[in-house]
Amino acid sequence: MLIADQVGFRYSGVTVLRGVNLRVEAATTLAVTGANGCGKSTLLHLLAGVERPSEGSVRRAAGSRVALLPQRTSGIDGLPLTVAECVRIGRFTPRRLLGRTDRTRVAEMMERLDIAHLARRRLRELSGGQRQRTLLAQTLVQDADVYVLDEPTVALDVTSRQQVHEVFAERVRAGAAVILASHDAAEAAIADQTLDLAAS
Ligand SMILES: Nc1ncnc2c1ncn2[C@@H]1O[C@H](COP(=O)(O)OP(=O)(O)OP(=O)(O)O)[C@@H](O)[C@H]1O
Ligand SMILES: [Mg+2]
């Protein structure tokens, strides 16, 4: 599904990643671990295709769809979006209006992540965990072949974390690849393979 070959990355001359190799098959999970600043978010951006490597290559299966949950999302708080609108954005495409399937998928995911009762609240009026569940719902309503998730459950309570992990497992069983960055050993343990950036 996705192959990184000798990937390197520099921010204005400063090397952050060097010689990263990985291969993620369909229906598997990769956890990316390592200390603050070791380059996990940078690598996830390269894998999702929002940044280009300075060296080496990232190749994804032709036609594969990527859904990205970034770590830093504070920009969205300035928008006057409700929780429901924020989740619906995950189903938007430029070419058509949202239909019944889209509305059903949004409603189901909001129920599963326990944010349905917050539908009309603004993002900036939420607790950290409620906000994170909203952004996760926006990512998980997307029909993707590769889900790239940067510290997806960082602010979540134990129950929410389990619910989110169940959704990941379902997507993997359905054939998607899940790539997540995490500082939580228990979360990394759900993955089929782990890339420890500090050690690479
Ligand atoms: N836009 C940027 N410009 C310059 N340097 C950056 C930029 N973004 C990140 N860096 C630097 O690149 C390195 C890797 O950052 P990155 O955000 O990928 O780390 P991380 O492993 O995700 O850390 P954390 O665990 O804190 O999320 C850090 O040293 C950081 O200071
Ligand atoms: Mg990070």
TrEMBL record:
ABC transporter domain location is 2-198
Q: Which UniProt keywords apply?
A: ATP-binding, Nucleotide-binding, Transport
Q: Which Pfam families match?
A: ABC_tran
What GO molecular functions are on record for this protein? ATP binding; ATP hydrolysis activity
Query: Organism's domain of life?
Result: Bacteria
Which InterPro entries did the record assign?
AAA+_ATPase, ABC_transporter-like_ATP-bd, AztA-like, Metal_Ion_Import_ABC, P-loop_NTPase
Query: Does the keyword Nucleotide-binding feature in the UniProt annotation?
Result: yes
By sequence similarity, the record places it as follows: Belongs to the ABC transporter superfamily.
Instruction: Tell me what this protein is called.
Output: Metal ABC transporter ATP-binding protein
Q: Which organism is it from?
A: Actinoplanes aureus
